[in-house]
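[job 4471] stage=fold_predict status=RUNNING
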Amino acid sequence: MNQVPLKTTYVDRPEVQEVFANHVRMVMVSDGVVHLELCTTHVDDLQPPEVPTGKMYPTVRVAMPVSAAAMLHAHLTQHLTELEKQGMVKREGPQSSGEPKH
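[job 4471] inference complete, writing structure tokens
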């Protein structure tokens, strides 16, 4: 069975909030859906000589089909490759442990 491609028109919704995140806390795939949890880190008041502490707050949880995650991957790869060429980012290899870097 051949599917006819869907022709869509983009309609902006200015009321949709923009969300800032400086940490990806969780990525999980379940039943063909990719779940992401993005967070923002807030640093507590510094108390020298104590080690700095902070709290991580979730800012958004996103769920998308694997096909949309693949599109996101392609877009991010393209942009990160260009930023790397410009010297603005340096890619790190895969992490050896399951713990995210902070």
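[job 4471] summary: The first helix runs from residue 66 to 85.
[job 4471] exit 0
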